[in-house]
């Protein structure tokens, strides 16, 4: 099992940057694929970015390509989401997710472990 805790959310102006962090507790973090999702009020929870267990393979939603970067540090049990050139439409609660597999997982149903979420608000 793994427990996930997100941090780094906040209020930022359009064009600004934030870096989200997801700290994982438990053993064998390096055997988990990780993902970042987001959910805006009244909308479904959508994939933002995902990374495989080694960090060698990544996936990005079209809406964030070129602006967001996912990375992981298996020695520190951490996955990061660097968000640059933020837009008001990026406003949402951002969730970290984990699944014990060696491939990139891009679907909501593919993850078994979730954090509590962190709010990101981008003002225009």
Describe the model:
It is built from no helices and 11 strands. The protein is mainly beta. Strands 2, 4, 5, 6, 9, 10 and 11 form a 7-stranded mixed beta sheet that branches. The protein has a 4-stranded antiparallel beta sheet with strand order 1-3-8-7, with no helix packed on it.
Give the tags:
124 residues, 4-stranded antiparallel beta sheet, 0% helix, 50% strand, globular
Helix content: under 10%
- SS element count, helices: 0
**What is the chains' assembly state?**
single chain
Total DSSP E strands: 11
Task: Show the helix and strand layout.
Elements: E1 3-7, E2 10-13, E3 18-25, E4 33-39, E5 45-51, E6 58-60, E7 68-73, E8 78-83, E9 92-99, E10 113-114, E11 118-123
Parallel strand pairs: 2-11
Antiparallel strand pairs: 1-3, 3-8, 4-5, 4-9, 5-6, 7-8, 9-10, 9-11
Quick synopsis:
The protein has 124 residues and is an all-beta fold. Helix content is 0%, strand content 50%.
């Amino acid at each position: 099992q793994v427990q996930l805790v997100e941090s780094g959310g906040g209020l930022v102006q359009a064009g600004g940057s934030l870096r989200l962090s997801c700290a994982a507790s438990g053993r064998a973090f390096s055997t988990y694929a990780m993902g970042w999702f987001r959910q805006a009020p009244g909308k479904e929870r959508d994939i933002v970015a995902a990374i495989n267990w080694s960090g060698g393979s990544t996936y990005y939603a079209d809406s964030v390509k070129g602006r967001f970067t996912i990375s992981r540090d298996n020695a520190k049990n951490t996955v990061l989401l660097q968000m640059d050139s933020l837009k008001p439409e990026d406003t949402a609660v951002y969730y970290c997710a984990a699944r014990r597999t060696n491939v990139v997982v891009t679907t909501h149903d593919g993850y078994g472990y979730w954090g509590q979420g962190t709010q990101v608000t981008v003002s225009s």
